[in-house]
C-alpha cells in the first residue's frame, strides 16, 4: 500500500485527510520561509559587522585570506582598506609571485604603503636561485616606495645573506643604496633590526650613519646580528672600524642594543 510522507508524519494512503495534509503543508511552508528569512537576516548582520571586530578578524588572517575576505561584501572590502589592517606589512614574495609579469604584492604596496608602521623584509629561505634578480628588482622598488611615502615605527631586515651570495657587485651596491636612502628618509623609527644581513664594512658604516642621524631621537631598540662580513672586518683599517661606536653611544633614547660584540668591539680594541 502506498504511503505519503510529510515533515510531520507518514500517512497510509487510505487514511489521508486532505484538510489535515493541507494544514501540515502550510505549516511546513511557513517554517521554511521563516528559516530562510532568519538566514538572510543573519547574513545581513554579518555584512553590517562594526569596524573594530571586523578589523580584529582581519588581524588573524594571512594576506591571501584577507584578500578573500574582502571580496565577501562592500562593508568587508572597506574594512580591508582600514589602517589597522595595513599597520604591519611583511615583504616576503613567493616563487609563484616572482613568476608573474606583474607582482600582485607591489600593487598593494603602492596603494597602502602610507599606512605601514611596522615592516619586515624576508628573503625567501629556499632562495629561488633563478628568481633572485626579479626579487632584487621588487625589493629595490619596495624600498623606493617606502622612501617616498612612508614613515615607519619599526623595520626588520632578515636573511639578506642568501641574496648577497648570488648577486653581482652592481646589484649589491644598488640594494645598499636603496636601504641607505630608505633609512635616511625615516625620522621616527623606534626599532631597527638586521638579522643575518652581512654587509661589507663600508656599507655597514653608511647604513648606521643614515639610521642614527635621521632617527637619532626616536630609536630605542637596535639589533645588529651578523651585520658585518667577518672577512670584510679583517680587511678594514682600525680607524674605519671606530666609526660605529660613537654612532651607537650618541643615541639618547636607545634602551636596547643587541649586537655581535665579538665582531665589532673586540676588533676595535684589539
UniProtKB/TrEMBL annotation:
What are the top taxonomic ranks of the organism? Eukaryota, Metazoa, Ecdysozoa, Arthropoda, Chelicerata
Q: Which residues form the F-box domain?
A: 43-89
> Matching InterPro entries, A to Z?
F-box-like_dom_sf, F-box_dom, LRR_dom_sf
Q: What is this protein called?
A: F-box domain-containing protein
Q: Which domain of life is it from?
A: Eukaryota
- Please name the source species: Araneus ventricosus (Orbweaver spider)
The record's PANTHER family line, in alphabetical order, gives: F-BOX DOMAIN-CONTAINING PROTEIN, PTHR20872
Amino acid at each position: 500500500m502506498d504511503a505519503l510522507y510529510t515533515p510531520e508524519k507518514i500517512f497510509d494512503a487510505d487514511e489521508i485527510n486532505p484538510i489535515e495534509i493541507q494544514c501540515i503543508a502550510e505549516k511546513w511552508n511557513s517554517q521554511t520561509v521563516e528559516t530562510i528569512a532568519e538566514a538572510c537576516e543573519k547574513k545581513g548582520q554579518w555584512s553590517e559587522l562594526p569596524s573594530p571586530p571586523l578589523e580584529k578578524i582581519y588581524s588573524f588572517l594571512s594576506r591571501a585570506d584577507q584578500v578573500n575576505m574582502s571580496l565577501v561584501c562592500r562593508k568587508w572590502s572597506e574594512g580591508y582598506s582600514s589602517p589597522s589592517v595595513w599597520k604591519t606589512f611583511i615583504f616576503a614574495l613567493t616563487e609563484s609571485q616572482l613568476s608573474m609579469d606583474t607582482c600582485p604584492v607591489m600593487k598593494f604596496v603602492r596603494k597602502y604603503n602610507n599606512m605601514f608602521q611596522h615592516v619586515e623584509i624576508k628573503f625567501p629561505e629556499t632562495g629561488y636561485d633563478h628568481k633572485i634578480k626579479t626579487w632584487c628588482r621588487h625589493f629595490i622598488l619596495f624600498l623606493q616606495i617606502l622612501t617616498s611615502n612612508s614613515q615607519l615605527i619599526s623595520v626588520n631586515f632578515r636573511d639578506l645573506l642568501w641574496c648577497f651570495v648570488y648577486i653581482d657587485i652592481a646589484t649589491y651596491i644598488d640594494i645598499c643604496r636603496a636601504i641607505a636612502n630608505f633609512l635616511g628618509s625615516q625620522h621616527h623609527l623606534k626599532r631597527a633590526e638586521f638579522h643575518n644581513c652581512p654587509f661589507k664594512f663600508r656599507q655597514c658604516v653608511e647604513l648606521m650613519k643614515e639610521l642614527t642621524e635621521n632617527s637619532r631621537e626616536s630609536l630605542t631598540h637596535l639589533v645588529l646580528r651578523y651585520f658585518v662580513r667577518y672577512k670584510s672586518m679583517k680587511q678594514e683599517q682600525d680607524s674605519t672600524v671606530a666609526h660605529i661606536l660613537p654612532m651607537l653611544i650618541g643615541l639618547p633614547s636607545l634602551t636596547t642594543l643587541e649586537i655581535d660584540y665579538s665582531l665589532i668591539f673586540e676588533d676595535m680594541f684589539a
